[in-house]
Amino acid sequence: MMAKSLIEIQDLHVKAEDGSGILNGVNLSIAEGEIHALMGPNGCGKSTLASVLLGSPEYIVESGEILLKGENITEWSADNRGKAGMFLAFQYPQEFSGVSVLNFLRQTVEARTGKEISILSLRKQMLAWMDRLDIDPEFADRYLNEGFSGGEKKRNEILQMALLEPEFAVLDETDSGLDIDALQIVATGIKEIMNKNPKISVLTITHYQRLLDHLQPHHVHILIDGKIAKSGGFELVEQLDAEGYEEWL
Predict the structure, then answer these.
(1) What is the distance between the terminal CA atoms of the chain, rounded to a whole angstrom?
(2) Longest distance between any two alpha carbons in the chain, whole Å
(3) Which of 186, 192, 234 is nearest to 213 (CA)?
(4) Which of 14, 119, 129, 185 is most deeply packed, by most CB within 10 A?
(5) pTM (global) more than 0.85
(6) What is the rounded CA–CA span in Å between residue 130 and residue 147?
(7) What SS3 class is residue 120?
(8) Residue range 5-248 in CATH 3.40.228.10
(9) pLDDT in tens, 147-176
(10) Count of CB atoms within 10 A of residue 70's CB?
(11) Which contacts qualify for 211-214: CB closer than 8 Å, 24 or more apart?
(12) pLDDT value at position 2?
């Protein structure tokens, strides 16, 4: 039985605020429970696609559509997309001075679910995931990402993903800056989240094979000059690792 499509990107053309084109007709379909990997050289539009999927106002959709479970969300705000179950783990997570990790998560979980959650209940869930992700429990009361190392910020993004329980998650270079041990922890956390909710779909954007060795994506896509130049299985990752992008440039 074929899995239902969760995200459909149809002939998506996107430009920057200065009018320069970035995405030039992206087509992509991601089914429930699938992991897709998006790879490509610097400047090809990978992070732009991640931002556009989550409703960033920095970019202008000229044409095309983004569908979530068949519903056109192209004009939806980032807030509404988050409430509908979409999540973005940022390439460069922002710092929020004065807002603790615990309070940030309480606000975002309540916004996502539409229900109040007690601090005690949330802290209990957080501590369990912090243990899995090797995050110091004291970080729960620290200001969000303030003074965190790169690896701590990335693990904190996966903590947010675990507690928000999204239906669709975009991981924008979550593996960048991670050492081997931290990468293993993050990859294990992602797999645990997917085991808990087998219907969650993930689009992971990366330059490197090492995270994909852990996640074993169902489909791999190569983005060149704002368009998907090639799609395939894990063999594409191995080809890129050996040969680079020269074939498509």
Answers:
(1) 37
(2) 54
(3) 234
(4) 14
(5) yes
(6) 17
(7) helix
(8) no
(9) 888 888 888 999 999 999 999 999 999 888
(10) 9
(11) 211/174, 211/175, 211/183, 211/186, 211/187, 212/37, 212/237, 214/183, 214/184, 214/187, 214/188
(12) 56
